[in-house]
Design brief:
The chain is built from nine helices and two strands. It has helices spanning about 10-30, 50-75, 75-85, 95-105, 120-140, 150-180, 185-190, 195-205, 205-230, and strands at about 5, 195. It has about 230 residues and is mainly alpha-helical. Helices cover about 70% and strands about 5% of the residues. The protein has one domain: Transmembrane di-heme cytochromes, Chain C (Fumarate Reductase Cytochrome B subunit, Up-down Bundle), CATH 1.20.950.
Length: about 230
């Protein structure tokens, strides 16, 4: 803890977040050239159509590798995050009804949240599933001539579905992080690793209580050791 801050995201999680989102947007922009003519003015920035294809493939490798590197750096943290994100119960769905109220300026009444709320958990689920779908479909599209036309079409549809769902959530994520007055304090956690204690207490009370409890136990152990040494 630093002052009135609470440590939320370590270096591995921050590396994972920013490396993944960087490669994701490079893929989104260069891939969008295939569908939207109004983006043609951006092509020279990537060296034209051929340059954009090269950037797209390099970014694809980066998107595949960055989560793997993150896992190798801190397998426990990544595994626990995934396990937490994929753990759901029926009552969790109530979160989204309250979230809609808050999103449009109303006052929400959430059940106590842990380190990640249900919206963040859903984001992790969608992005991880999208990552697998991007890889599977991308391999087929990369070596299109090596596969049947039918499989190529399925891969193209799968690629588009993964892009649409992940992009929709990424746009919402950016809005909440940069502009929504209630949720934008969370961005600091991905920049410095720390969030305001007040934010943690109000938005993630279960996790906040756990952190405070762990800190209290650590202090107690330190005092106990000091007493033992004095004796």
């Amino acid at each position: 803890m630093v002052s009135n801050k609470i440590f939320r995201f370590n270096k591995t999680m921050r590396f994972f977040h920013w490396s993944y989102i960087t490669f994701y947007f490079l893929l989104a922009i260069t891939g969008a050239f295939l569908y939207f003519d109004f983006l043609d003015w951006l092509r020279p920035l990537f060296g034209g159509a051929q340059g954009a294809r090269i950037v797209h493939r390099v970014a694809a490798v980066g998107l595949i590798v960055s989560p793997i590197i993150s896992f190798l750096l801190n397998p426990k943290e990544i595994w626990e995050t995934l396990k937490y994100a994929y753990s759901w119960k029926a009552s969790d769905l109530k979160f989204f009804g309250e979230f809609i109220k808050e999103f449009f300026g109303g006052h929400a009444h959430y059940e106590p949240q842990g380190k990640y709320n249900q919206g963040e958990k859903l984001n992790i689920v969608l992005q991880s599933l999208g990552w697998f779908l991007f890889i599977l479909s991308g391999i087929v599209l990369w070596r299109f001539e090596s596969f049947s036309p039918e499989l190529g079409m399925i891969a193209l549809i799968g690629h588009d579905i993964a892009f649409i769902f992940t992009l929709a959530y990424v746009i919402g994520h950016i809005y909440l992080s940069l502009f929504h007055p209630v949720t934008k304090p969370a961005l600091e956690g991905m920049l410095t690793g720390y969030v305001d204690e007040e934010y943690a207490q109000n938005h993630h009370p279960l996790w906040y209580t756990e952190i405070k409890s762990d800190k209290g136990k650590a202090k107690s152990k330190t005092k106990s050791k000091a007493v033992t040494v004095e004796k």
